[in-house]
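Before a colleague's protein record goes any further, I have to sign it off. Alongside the sequence sits a line of tokens, each denoting a local backbone shape. I want your independent view on whether this chain really folds as the tokens say. Where you disagree with what is written, explain briefly why. This is what I was given:
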Amino acid sequence: MARLGPKVTNLTELMTKVNAMLPYEEFTSQKKLEDSYILGYYCQRQVFIEEKNQRIAENQKKKLEKINEGENEHE
């Protein structure tokens, strides 16, 4: 997590909120997870992946715009 730098704060806060929603007894339970819980986990994980990919695409677009602006100044 240290490699994430400042981003780790938001991630840590989100993980803390999720953990706080689970009763201690369920958090430490040895019972098998229900299918709906597992499905929810993967759905939420996909949302995070899509948000990350969107941020990457936006950053790449901004970089290309800056490069294009620099090229246009030299013409």
The chain has three helices and no strands. Residues 1-31 form one domain. The two ends are 44 Å apart (CA to CA). The first helix runs from residue 7 to 21.
